[in-house]
Amino acid sequence: MEIAVQLVIAGLLQGGVYALAAFGLSLIFGVSDVLNLAHGEFLMLGGLFTFLLFSATGLNPFLIGLMMVPFAFCLGYIFDRFLMRPLAGKKEHIRLMSSILVTLGAALCIEDVTSFLAGAEEKGVDYTLPSFFWGDIFISYLRLLAMVMIAALTVGIHYYLKKTYTGRALRATTQNIRGAMLVGVDTYRIRSVTFGIGSGLASIAGVFYVVLLSIAPDMGLGVTIKYLCIIVLGGLGSLIGSLVGGLILGLTESIVSYYTPHWGQTAAFLILVLILLIRPKGLFGK
Q: What is the pTM of this model?
C-alpha cells in the first residue's frame, strides 16, 4: 500500500507538469491550426535558464520561474509574429504541413544552438526542502509544494479564460474563427497572444522539470510528442481534458515503469490508441 501511494503521488505530480505544457499546445493548435513541434523547446529553455540563474544567484527556482514568464510570453509572441503569421493566409492543408516543417526546423536549430552554448549533458537544480512521514508514507515538501503550485496555476488559467476579454476572445477563436472575426475579434493578435501564453506555461513546466527531474537540450521533441498524446486523449482546447489526460499519462508511466522499467511510455501510448478507437474526439472533446 505504501508503495502504491508513493507511485500515485509521483504520477499525479508528473501528470500535472505534463498538463501545464500540454494545455498551452492545445490552445495554440485550437486557435491557429498550427502544430507547433517546437513547443517542447520552450520547456527546455525555461528549465535551462532556471538552472543558469539559480547557479549564478542562488535564488529560489520557483521565483526565477515566475520572473521568466514575461520573457517566455514575449518569445512566444515573437515566434508567432515572424514564423507562423506568414503561413496564416495559406490553405488549411498547406498551413498545417508548412507549420510542421517550420516548427520542426526551429526546434532542431534551438537544440543545436543550446547544445553548443550550454553543453549537451543533463542539468538539474540541487534544491531541496525538508520531508516528513505520514505513517509509512514518505512525503517530500518540495513535491507537495509543486503540486499546490500546479493546482493554483490551473485554477488561475481557468478563471483567466472565463473572466477576461482576451480569454473569452481566445475561446471564441478556438470554437469558430470565422465567427470570432465577424464580431470584431482581432484573430491575428489573439494567435500571437496564445503563442505567448502557451510558451509561458511551457517555461513554468520547465522549472518543475529542472527542479524535480532534469533537462537536456535534446529533450524538446520527445516531450512535445507526449503533449500531443495528452491533447488528443483529453480533447482539443479543453483545460479539464488536458489536466485529466496529463494525469492519466503520468499515473500510467509511474505505475508501469515501477513494475516493468522502460515500458511506461509504451503503456501510455497504448491507452491513447484505445481512447482513439473508442472516442476519437478525446475524453472531453466536442
A: 0.88
